[in-house]
Specification:
123 residues; two-stranded antiparallel ribbon
Length: 123
């Protein structure tokens, strides 16, 4: 079995983002808005799993959805196209002459791992 391990801690930074995200999630939960949609069978088996930190979106959408029948509200994960457009806009604004996209970060991350002597076939 291949274990996939990566230096995520270094990528995430000091943890301030996580603290801010958790406090935002806690405020939303108190207002009844912070739960995550989960599949029906999982919802029956684990009734409060949608409120736990591990099930929250890391990059939630800005706008909330509202269920027609139940009236419940929530957020989905941020659409990848939003991030891709933001990266393209940042590349243009920064005046970078080479083509760059989110996939460029994938290769850049792999290059940094190789520079550190990591075996990227296990990542």
């Amino acid at each position: 079995m291949v274990q996939r391990i990566g230096p995520v801690v270094g990528v995430l930074g000091t943890g301030q983002e996580s603290v801010a995200h958790r406090s935002m999630r806690d405020r939303l939960l108190e207002a009844g808005l912070g739960s995550v949609v989960r599949y029906y069978a999982l919802a029956r088996k684990y009734s409060n799993v949608n409120r736990e930190w591990g099930w929250q979106w890391v990059f939630p959408q800005q706008n909330r959805w509202c269920g027609r029948e139940s009236g419940s509200q929530g957020r989905h994960h941020l659409d990848p196209r939003v991030v891709q457009k933001a990266v393209k806009r940042a590349v243009v604004d920064a005046g970078v002459s080479k083509a760059a996209s989110c996939h460029t970060f994938h290769h850049s991350f792999a290059s940094h791992l190789l520079e550190q002597g990591q075996d990227i076939s296990t990542i």
